[in-house]
Amino acid sequence: MKTKRKDIYFDCAATTPLDGDILQKMMPYLKDKYGNASSLHKFGREASEAIDIARQKLAIFLGCNETEIVFTGSASESDNLAIRGLIKSLRRAKRAGEKIHVITSQIEHKAVFETCKDLVKEGVKVTFLPVGFDGIVHVDDLSAEITPETDLVSIMYANNETGAIQPIKQIAKLIAGLNKNKDHKIYFHTDAVQAANWLDLNVDELRADLLTLSGHKIYGPKGVGALYIREGTPILPLTTGGDQEWKLRAGTENVAAIVGFGEAVVKIKSQKPKIKIIENLKDKLIADVLIKIEGSKLNCPQNSKNRLPNIANFSFRGVEGEALVLALDQEGIAVSTGSACTSLALVPSHVLVAMGLSDTEAHSSLRVSLGRYTTVQEVNYFLKVLPKVVERLRKISGR
Amino acid sequence: MYNKKVIEHFTKPKFFGKIENPDVIGKAGNPRCGDLLTLYLKIDKKTNKIKDIRFETLGCAAAIAASDMVCQLAIGKTLKQAEKITFLNVSDELGVLPPLKIHCAQLVTEALRDAINKYSPEEGR
């Protein structure tokens, strides 16, 4: 009898499994401690105290004050609050005819990318910086685009499709230099969702004014995000109607999810020694795929230092990404693709296209994202199965 | 997203491959949307029936399944009959494709029509 194979989850950039210990810490708030954190009684106090503790944990993680953290419903919401909330506030302060100028990149997560595109329709001037073939923004390009009117720069810390780490420290340094002795300040936002497991996120070292985090990419629950807002950064709420979260995000708090989020950021620290192991697994995976499969190409920075320890992105000649994902799924391997076939627009990943990939290459892309629980056996199984699946699909495509 | 039948035709397509010296080739697709397909046909000159048909498809699971299905529907038919195969026939036979994937069924019938239009037997039809 065939023994049942365990499914392999190599899609940790999409979401991570919920850590069992974290779930345990959340459980009381899904059961007996169901109070509304705004209530005065014991139930309410239990809930608000739990949120306070989680907020402290995030504050320690980011090296900031508790008052600088706003819990939201997702990282996408945090990105929206950061960008739209700042612009809303700046607009009210501007004189008639003064334009808002935002600089972002062509490889942002859609929560930033589409939000900025939407703002263009509202009359905001947005500059989308290009990237090199390695998927990295050039600080010189940013420098050239900054004008005396520039209000906000939003560049992600690490890209979700390629794992390319962006030079945000240099970017922040450039901005800090320009802000010196100036009345008109340029604010700096970074979406650090993918970076959180791997890179240090001390907001003073990063010199970020706004920073986005997500719960479910760090082994915490879905349905919770956070936005760090440096004291003095003018943000107005997008959701009104309650005093929660320093009046910046109305709505009864998702207490259990916030508790889980707090536990998740604490656990990141204890997992740091594992980073090297995961990075080695990923580097082995990359090296073996490129050797074993002719006509394969890496869509990540060549230098290991410039990419996250867990993400690898490939293109395979003669194979379409969605077909590849489904064929691997049938073999018990969960991965993802930048192919258009999963999107309504039928256009391939804007990130891969911005890196200079042809449409065909972008359609044939495969993202493999490892995680905390990845084993060498899983990587070996993947390396055994992938060449066969690619070969089978190439027979069908005749390419 | 896909039903069992689509997955079956994607996983185990019966008609994929090339025909050496085909009587006609039909093509459809564009790189922007990611699907490119080629149909190879062998045609009985006397009866005008499709004797053999094969496909090569670079595309998603739906495109591969639809390619296999259009071959299954076309084989054994005369060119006149085959010309009447519509994307709805392909989609229905697959037990309905997701709305996003209907264009895959359109693409395979386009390739079939392309082949039929191009076909000109030496001795006339």
Question: What does this molecule look like?
Answer:
The complex is a heterodimer of chains A (399) and B (125). Chain A is α/β, with parallel strands linked by helices. Chain A has helices at residues 20-30, 42-62, 75-93, 110-121, 139-145, 168-179, 203-206, 244-247, 255-270, 275-292, 321-330, 350-354, 359-363, 376-397; strands spanning 8-9, 69-72, 101-105, 125-129, 150-154, 187-191, 210-214, 225-229, 296-298, 311-316, 333-334, 365-369. The mean pLDDT of chain A is 95. By secondary structure, chain B is α+β, with helices and mostly antiparallel strands. Chain B has a single domain (4-118), classed as Sufe protein. Chain: A (Alpha-Beta Complex), CATH 3.90.1010.10. In chain B, 41% of the residues lie in helices and 20% in strands. Chain B has helices at 4-11, 61-74, 79-83, 87-93, 102-118; strands spanning 24-30, 35-43, 50-58. In chain B, a hairpin with a 4-residue loop joins strand 1 (24-30) and strand 2. In chain B, helix 1 (4-11) packs across helix 2, helix 2 (61-74) packs across helix 5 (102-118) and helix 4 crosses helix 5 (102-118). The radius of gyration of chain B is 14 Å and the shape is globular. The chains are: A alpha/beta (399), B alpha+beta (125). Chains A and B meet through helix 11, helix 13 and helix 14 of A and helix 1, strand 2, strand 3 and helix 2 of B.
Number of domains of chain A: 2
Helix content bin of chain A = 40-55%
User: What's the main sheet of chain B like?
Assistant: 3 strands, antiparallel
Radius of gyration computed on alpha carbons of chain B: 14 Å
Low-confidence runs of at least 5 consecutive residues of chain A: none
**CATH T-level fold name of the largest domain in chain A:** Aspartate Aminotransferase, domain 2
Strand order across the largest sheet of chain A: 2-8-7-6-5-3-4
Report how far apart the termini of chain B are: 43 Å
Strands of chain B, count: 3
Assign the CATH class of chain B. Answer: Alpha Beta
Secondary-structure element order of chain A, N to C: EHHEHEHEHEHEHEEHHHEEHEHHEH
Biggest pleated sheet of chain A = 7 strands, mixed
Overall SS class of chain B: alpha+beta
Mean pLDDT value of chain B: 93
Q: Tell me which oligomeric state these chains represent.
A: heterodimer
Biggest interface, chains and residue tallies = A-B, 25 and 26 residues
Q: Order of strands across the biggest sheet of chain B?
A: 1-2-3
Rg of chain A to the nearest angstrom? 22 Å
CATH architecture of chain B, please? Alpha-Beta Complex
Total count of domains of chain B:
1
Number of helices of chain B: 5
